[in-house]
Amino acid sequence: MEESRAPEDDPAKARQRRKELGLSCMLNTEVGAVLAVIRRPSSEASAQHQYVSGLQDEAVDSSILHSLKSLRALIFNPQQEWRMIDPSVYLSPFLDVVQSDDVPAAATGVALSALIKVLKMGIFDEKTPGARDAINSVVTGIVNCRLGKTDPGSEEAVLMRILQVLSSTMRHRASILLSDQAVCTLVNTCFQVVQQSSSRGSLLQRNARYTMHELIQIIFSRLPEIDLKEGENSESDTDDVYSLLDSGYGVRCTVDIFHFLCSLMNVVEVVETDGSTSQSADEDVQIFALVLINSAVELSGDSIGRHPKLLRMIQDDLFHHLVHYGTSSSQLVLAMICSTVLSVYHFLRRFIRLQLEAFFSYVLFRAALQGPSSQIQEVATEGIINFCRQPAFIFETYVNYDCNFMCPNVFEEIGKLLCRHAFPTSSSLSSLQLQAFEGLVILIHNIADNINMEDPSTFKPRAVEVTEYRAFWEEKPEEEDENWVDSVRLRKAQKRKIMIARNHYNLDDKKGLDYLKISNLVSGEAPDAKAYASFFRFTPGLEKVSIGDYLGDPDEFHIMVLKEFTDTFEFSGMVLDTALRTYLETFRLPGESQKIHRIIEAFADRYYDQQSSETFASKDAVLVLSYSIIMLNTDQHNPQVKKKMTEEEFIRNNRAINGGNDLPREYLSELFHSISTNEIKINKQTMSTQNEMSPSRWVELMNRSRSANPFFRCNFDGRLGRDMFATIAGPSVATLCACFEQAEEDELLHECAEGLFSIGRIAQYGLEDTLDELVAGFCKFTMLLNPYASSEETLFTFSNDLKSRMATLAVFTIANSFGFSIRGGWRNIVDCLLKLRRLKLLPQTVVEPDADPVSPSDASSTNFRSESGMNFHNQDPRFSNGHQSSGMIGRFSHFLALDGAEDSLTLGASEFEQNLKIIKQCRIGSIFTRSRHHPDAGLVHLGRSLIFAAAGKGQKFSTPIEEEETVGFCWDLINTITISNIHRFSAFWPSFHDNLIAVAQFPFFSPIPFTEKAMCCLLKLCLKLVSTRQADMLPEELIFRSITLMWKLEKEILEICSEAIFKMISRILVEFPENIQTQLGWKSLLHLLVVTGRNPETYDQGVETLITILSNTDHLSRINYMCCIDCAFGFIGLKSCPVDKKIKILDLLIETMNLLIQWHKTGFSDPAVNNYSTTSSSSMEENSKALGASNLALNMFVKLGEFLKNTSLARREEVRNHAIQGLGIIFPLAENLDFMSTSCMKCFNLVVCAMVDDLHEKVLVYSRRENVEVELRSWEESLKLSMRVLTNVFLHFLKLIWENPGFRTFWLGVLRRMDTCMKADLGSYGMTSLKELVPELLRQMILKMKEDDILLPREGDDLSEITYIQIQWIAPSLKDELFPDL
């Protein structure tokens, strides 16, 4: 017989049928299992359950069996898909079994297993009809599960299955249809199992807790997806109706569950000790609760902030518990509390500003500093460090707390706490010290990595000053302020001023309040009462007695301050005694009753206005009861009161005070017991930070949080980063330096170095003192500056001590990277450098010949070679960005990899090479060649350190050679930095010059070799400056001022270093004369040319240099003209100077008379005259006074005439006669200088007459000597020549001068000189030939005067008569010839 085959079904439908069939089979199996257990014979049941009597089938509720059988009948004949069938159809039979009191434990367990399978198989989902009722019925059934007929072993198994059902229910897709009440019931049921499991096996306990954790995770992970329902936005505690909307459970259940979790923190356990019982927090439950709370926060995230009730729960309940138990818990609980707060911080810090402050102030700081054990301190410290690991925490903390007047300096306290714990107190660091050290380094790295601002070499910190009055107690939300950084910095400045005002106030209250006005913290014109009130209310550490006296004063303004002060309190929700405690904590009640009355009255008004209850009928009732409480407090706690007030007496004393009625007895009784057991302490002298969070303080905090600005989330700003580090800079540097000193392990050394370099990265932004302190610390660790160690000991330490080499590299790396911010630290750096030089550790391979300071390639050369032979390398291109720390720490990694030095007393070649390699990595040369990036102040400090070191300050030299080499090396460095900064020479050199003056005042200053090396260096700098024409003449003036100072300190150096000085001077004068623009420059150069030119080896070249200058009129100017004359006189006066050279110089100077005439005619129109007028020489000023004229050319002419006059006294006759003839040449030309008659006569007297007098004196001197007739006759001829010049000049200017009122005197002076020469007595050498010359010269002059009608007899003019008389005395033979009529 052939089988018939069904047509091929659709594959999808086939799979669906197989699935439906599988579900039917599963349900059939579970139903059968339940029925089988229920029908199990009683004997078998007795055998298996010895504590439970057997059950008969007829004893079981028939409805349970009927429902199971009905389900079995339906299983394989469903009318539709299982997914579309009401789940109650197949869930109800099993739930009936679970809830029945008559079924055995085994049947309950099987029914629970069936429910687990149904829920896991996903037979229905949230879209299945009846799913809502079904899923809620599961919760109801589990809650009502009966365990009465089970033995202990079976009960534990049933409880395990209950936990599985609860977990499966919440994981089911239809769980979103659970009502808020069902979810709360489900969690409560699970916790009941947790409680029961504590007395059972550990497996059940672990499973119960795991399930509880899982339920919390499922519930709170859905919170971000829940939309806020109508009515849930209210924070009212009276809205307890649970949502029955189609969307299922919502925020209400999460609020209740979270409240339940917080309440678990209060679970206590009873401990029996020595027959007595005590209660303490159940640590195990607390940890369990914290784990669940942490999970809830982590999964809910910032969505909590959208639900006010839940947020308020975290702000109030959670944090109150965390702060309360955090102060007295074990290390494990404290660690969990820290983790919980950190989680809340991540998601909700915007809403917990004050709570977070309280947690740090009352928990972490207290536990870390005053913890009962080192373990507690470590946990608290680790909690703080975990916060510091968060990128934005420290910055946001500084902005929100440290820059807020009403908050403590949380960041500063964190930094100082870590420094305090990390500071080493012994050779080995404890675990707490290592932990704090790690946290401090993390904090510093965090700031350093984010502080990047503008170029630090050009960064100029702008200090914030409180320039105008601004309400310091008011906070403008930072989100609304575009310039929030400036506002925050201003608030921080105000806070600093307030702390200063506090110190003044505690010493003298009037001075403190005056300082508030001076600092613009209160208005000086119209005082603001709220400003004073805020100062009294929120400034910590104020002297309480003065506050009380001020507030109680009857002055009108003081009363206004009292009201504003009282209005700063939030008393809503506080009991009267709590509010009064809070109020009286802030000041001390004055002794006068009237003052007390005003203060308590203000309190009563504020308290009454803020109470929502109807306990008090009026403000007067509050006032009377407040007085009564203060009196009760004194009565109960004053030891001098022997008879204490009873409760009944207190109640009786306060009868009928509430508007004629009594206050509730219970209320007064509570007040009495509160005061009697807990004193209101009003005797403290100053306001201090409380170590405990009292209930009243927490209520006040919550009241403040309602009006306080939210936690401001912001990005890092470099300006604030610099400011915030400045608050902990000192302790940080000291701590890390101490750790570096104590560290023995390479890893710890490495971490210290990294931390210190991060400090440098921060300090480069204007924290110069911090950077100097850092440099000083590293220099100490180099061991190079140990004054008690010999050179051999220092060298051995350097070669064998890793720490010393690391510190050396650190010093110079800091100088390279952050040199622009170093100030006083340069002294330490220079001292270390000089020590390395003495130890011969500076590389010798870089010694090369001197470089030309004006070489064309100077600006771009890679190296700078010094006077001492040291070659200073510029910055390596790989390290061209000096502001980045990349590569710095790599050098230390290299050090850590080095093998330890051999333990020997002498250095081997390998050690020496290793030392040189280390020094090479220091890139010492680039420190100075790259000094162009330093600001003026930094450069001045560097120069000061080098100059003082060169002068021997702080140095000890073993030999003169060592001293000379050190001084030369220092001046080489000065030369290097000066050339690198030649573009701003005028900015820093005045300070250098002042330092040069200062070193001369040192007690043991030795001018040699200091001035010797200084002159060489300064002349090099001078050559560099004048090699190009400068727009500003000040640099030239400054350098020559220093050059003059140096040679005046020790004039011997001009002879010691004459060749070197002459070489530089000659080059400047020959190659760059047109670039010398100041008279001081010319005067200094030409003076040095003369002095160094005296050396026989340099004399010829010196004379040629002068002749070169004089030969080229382009080189002569009004600035250098007189200096050239002085120089010429210096060379002419030398005996070794050849006659032809002297005459050449004289001729050149005589020819300059034409140049003077040209300058005079042009009116000195070029810019040089301006400079000349400001730098005129003393001789010019003297000549101007003598001549009574301000004609510049005339002054120069006088200078030239004096030069020739002085030269007329030269020993060589040819030279002096040439000079006399020169005077005869230049004087007639002087009429082109616009001579006035008076100037002409004065010039004649000053030069010509003086020359005649000097030569006459010479003749007389030689006439008294023996065997000098030849010399005498030579001088006589020169005198005769000068007389002729006098006559010629007189005759030339006769018409100009004769009408001058002073001509009579002038003419008598001429006649007197003629008379003197006529009567010259040559003694044994016979007659003088002057007797023949003088009459001839007189004849010429008188005849000319008569010819010009000057000697004609006139009425009132006796010139002719006086002349006649004088001729009778001088040359009587001429009387008749010249005056025939007389």
TrEMBL record:
It is found in: Cytoplasm, Cytosol; Membrane. InterPro entries: ARM-type_fold, Mon2/Sec7/BIG1-like_HUS, Sec7_C_sf, Sec7_dom, Sec7_dom_sf. GO terms for cellular component: cytosol; membrane. Residues 487-678 form the SEC7 domain. Keywords: Guanine-nucleotide releasing factor. GO terms for molecular function: guanyl-nucleotide exchange factor activity. It is a peripheral membrane protein. It holds the Pfam family Sec7. The keyword Chaperone does not apply. One of its GO terms (biological process) is regulation of ARF protein signal transduction. SUPFAM superfamilies: ARM repeat, Sec7 domain. CDD domains: Sec7. This is SEC7 domain-containing protein. It comes from Trapa incisa. The lineage of its organism: Eukaryota, Viridiplantae, Streptophyta, Embryophyta, Tracheophyta.
